[in-house]
């Protein structure tokens, strides 16, 4: 359920007060959904991916705990995001980590003033706001892969939003829905480039590298040579790595795909919906296709909704996502907070006792 599953689990079970994750394509919305917590996927550029890069390189040999840079799958999509037990905690964290950073060119292209996201915590924020429902990419199981039970609880969530004073705009669909599923070329090319660009420098500072992995080619070979360790039953698929390795860098096909992604994401995607139907935000189950955009910067937040009644496990949580245009993070957080305060789903649906860890100073 995404590369930040550990962050989601740690936040949900109380192993950390708050956690950070990174999202390329669902790695915040999915763990937040399944772990019954709040996740904020900020606008690309709002948070830096650089970490404390200069000091990190300087202290590699001295085992000092300095945050390393994020090694992105693609710089065009990856964001650093808070995953927390409440929207309030997420707003606090985002207020701290948002802002310009000269070590990340993307993070320089943002509004001059970062909002105090704590001021977004308004229980009445949904009153009078138009909330759109892109049904075809939200509840069509052939597109989302979601179980029909999710749709039932999603309809109940829409009634709650309406009761909070928000007119429902239904259904403003995305004309690019099916094409979004296959828009992966940019990710594949960027991933290979990032591996080639970052990993050699990381390995340069390792005291030992017994696997001798220094490139994507090496990684694929290592996985094949160590099946018991790297490709156990159910995890044999290396097709994404192999597709990335087969790309030819920043060629004409790459730039055509990049332009197409931007087209799918805005003029024929969420931007189309926001412009034509004029909602203040679009709402979707957190695992709907619309919550995993591959294109221009958008913003989204995910809040707990309720259980999946049958599949993939009885009572497994799933979330609700509010999405909007770039740098609408403040408004989306306010909508998520209003919904959270009305429903209190996380407090109402605690894990069974054996699943709740009891950490202590000894552990």
From TrEMBL:
Stored Pfam families: Amidase
SUPFAM superfamilies found in the cross-reference section: Amidase signature (AS) enzymes
Gene3D superfamilies cross-referenced by the UniProt entry: Amidase signature (AS) domain (3.90.1300.10)
Highest taxon listed in the record's lineage: Eukaryota
Domain Amidase positions: 1-220
Database matches in InterPro entries: Amidase_dom, AS_sf
Stored PANTHER family: AMIDASE, OS04G0183300 PROTEIN
Name under which the protein is recorded: Amidase signature domain-containing protein
């Amino acid at each position: 359920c995404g590369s930040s599953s550990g962050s989601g689990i740690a936040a949900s079970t109380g192993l950390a007060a708050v956690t950070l994750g990174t999202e390329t394509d669902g790695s915040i919305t999915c763990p937040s959904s399944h772990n019954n917590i709040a996740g904020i996927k900020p606008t690309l550029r709002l948070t830096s991916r650089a970490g404390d890069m200069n000091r990190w390189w300087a202290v590699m040999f001295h085992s000092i705990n300095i945050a390393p840079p994020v090694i992105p799958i693609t710089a065009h999509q990856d964001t650093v995001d808070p995953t927390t037990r409440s929207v309030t905690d997420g707003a606090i964290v985002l207020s701290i980590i948002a802002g310009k950073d000269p070590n990340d060119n993307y993070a320089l292209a943002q509004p001059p003033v970062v909002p105090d996201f704590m001021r977004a915590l308004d229980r009445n924020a949904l009153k009078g706001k138009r909330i759109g429902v892109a049904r075809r990419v939200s509840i069509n199981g052939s597109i989302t892969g979601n179980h029909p039970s999710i749709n039932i609880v999603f309809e109940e969530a829409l009634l709650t939003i309406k009761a909070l004073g928000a007119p429902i705009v239904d259904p403003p669909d995305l004309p690019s829905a099916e094409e979004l599923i296959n828009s992966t070329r940019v990710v594949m090319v960027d991933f290979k480039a990032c591996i080639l660009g970052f990993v050699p420098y990381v390995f340069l500072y390792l005291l030992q590298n017994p696997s001798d992995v220094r490139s994507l080619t090496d990684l694929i070979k290592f996985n094949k040579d160590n099946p018991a360790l790297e490709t156990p039953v159910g995890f044999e698929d290396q097709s994404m790595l192999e597709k990335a390795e087969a790309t030819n860098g920043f060629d004409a096909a790459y730039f055509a795909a990049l332009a197409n992604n931007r087209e799918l994401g805005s003029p024929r995607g969420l931007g189309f919906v926001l412009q034509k139907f004029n909602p203040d935000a679009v709402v979707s189950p957190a695992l709907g296709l619309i919550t995993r955009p591959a294109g221009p910067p958008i913003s989204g937040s995910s809040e707990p909704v309720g259980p999946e009644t049958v599949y993939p496990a009885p009572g497994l949580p799933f979330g609700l996502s509010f999405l909007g245009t770039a740098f609408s993070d403040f408004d989306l957080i306010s909508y998520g907070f209003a919904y959270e305060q009305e429903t209190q789903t996380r407090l109402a649906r605690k894990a069974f006792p054996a699943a709740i860890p009891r950490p202590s100073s000894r552990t």
